[in-house]
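Here is the promised in-class demo. Please do not try to memorize the tokens; focus on the logic of going from shape to residues.
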């Protein structure tokens, strides 16, 4: 299961969770001071100097006299920005009280604690919330054992008391207090619910370090740290963790595997460290490597890896083609693929993405069955898989829509929604 932080662009919740958008009062903040102490507005706004500079791109040439402002280390730029700030403060001085009032009113309308709806996974309910007075979210879970009281507990973050069984997995606020700055890139809970793997940037340079936390003891495994980690995926038995690693240009180019032995096996075999080896390396610098699990956790995709038996190696699902994408999910022995790969006009004259499937044993073959070939006024842009149905997200005649299709899906070359 993957998580992203609430209200932060760098950090997504699972598709089934609602995204919560926050209006930060800082957008309306201003230095609090009396009007009499504000600098008087200048007669005219500051005008930056013009420096001749010629730009030539794609056979076109033009003058850009403000090109010098692209150098953020230029002291003249800092001086000009300071003059603009002084001018803006003076120009807006008479609205300081109004802006402060608007900011207070909007802040008062926000709930003190904002939460995502809980998502059930196995015996646990996972959710995030931003504590009152805090800036960053907290990732939590609780055992889903009160079946009869589920609806009551569903809204416990909207004014009701949270269950005492709540378990905090990761608190962004504690990390921020410790390091001064924090950005959590990716969170992955292991399929056995015992480990949390996440990537952490504490410098602001978007260089992330992989860490693995034992959720039973609350301790970080110091031997699991890997610099430059980007995306993560667990094997189904939670003994192996796949991750991608960036190169010197911060391009994710390599996929590796960490093998973690269970405590019982560690003691029996005498191992006290992790084994690590590369699985896949992308040498073409025009491509980046990402890794994710199918929603049922049975496969991991860059190429397709069996997460139950990762030692079986990588299998190619489709040949790489320029400008062609494949989004893969798995359900009951079938791969469901959303792709924009060209089809012969005899099959489909449309453009964009369509839905196909193939059996797992037919991987690397051309035995793809067309399931949904959309009409020309319809554009599919995403899909989601659940236990009993598949959901398509699409636009039809300009309107965003979604459609639920019950399993098993029927093959229909002329299917339209």
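The designed amino acids, position by position:
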């Amino acid at each position: 299961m993957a998580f992203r932080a609430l209200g932060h662009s760098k950090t997504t919740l699972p598709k089934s969770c609602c995204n919560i958008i926050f209006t930060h009062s800082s957008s309306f903040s201003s230095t609090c001071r009396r009007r009499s102490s504000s600098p008087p507005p200048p007669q005219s706004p500051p005008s930056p100097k013009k420096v001749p500079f010629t730009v030539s791109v794609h056979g076109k040439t033009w003058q850009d006299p403000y090109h010098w402002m692209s150098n953020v280390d230029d002291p003249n730029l800092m001086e000009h920005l300071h003059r603009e700030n002084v001018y803006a403060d003076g120009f807006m001085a008479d609205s300081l009280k109004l802006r402060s009032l608007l900011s207070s009113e909007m802040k008062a309308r926000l709930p003190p604690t904002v939460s995502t709806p809980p998502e059930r996974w196995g015996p646990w309910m996972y959710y995030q919330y931003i504590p009152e007075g805090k800036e960053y979210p907290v990732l939590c879970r609780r055992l889903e054992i009160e079946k009869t009281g589920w609806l009551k507990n569903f809204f416990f973050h909207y004014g009701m008391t949270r269950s005492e069984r709540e378990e905090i997995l990761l608190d962004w606020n504690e990390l921020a207090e410790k390091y001064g700055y924090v950005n959590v890139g990716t969170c992955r809970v292991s399929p056995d619910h015992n480990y949390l793997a996440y990537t952490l940037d504490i410098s602001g340079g978007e260089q992330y370090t992989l860490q693995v936390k034992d959720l039973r003891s609350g301790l970080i495994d110091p031997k699991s740290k890997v610099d430059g980690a980007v995306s993560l995926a667990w094997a189904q038995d939670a003994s192996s963790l796949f991750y991608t690693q960036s190169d010197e240009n911060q391009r994710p180019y390599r996929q590796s595997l960490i093998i973690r032995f269970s405590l019982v096996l560690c003691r029996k075999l005498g191992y006290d460290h992790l084994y690590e080896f590369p699985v896949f390396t992308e040498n073409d610098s025009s491509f980046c490597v990402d890794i994710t699990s199918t929603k049922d956790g049975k496969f991991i995709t860059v190429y397709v890896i069996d997460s139950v038996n990762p030692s079986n190696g990588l299998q190619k699902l489709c040949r790489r083609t320029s400008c062609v994408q494949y989004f893969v999910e798995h359900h009951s022995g079938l791969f469901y693929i959303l792709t924009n790969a060209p089809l012969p006009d005899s099959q489909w004259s449309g453009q964009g993405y369509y839905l196909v499937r193939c059996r797992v044993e037919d991987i690397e073959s051309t035995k793809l069955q067309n399931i949904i070939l959309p009409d020309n006024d319809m554009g599919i842009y995403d899909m989601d898989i659940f236990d009993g149905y598949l959901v398509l997200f699409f636009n039809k005649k300009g309107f965003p829509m979604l459609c639920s299709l019950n399993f098993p899906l029927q093959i229909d070359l002329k299917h339209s929604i």
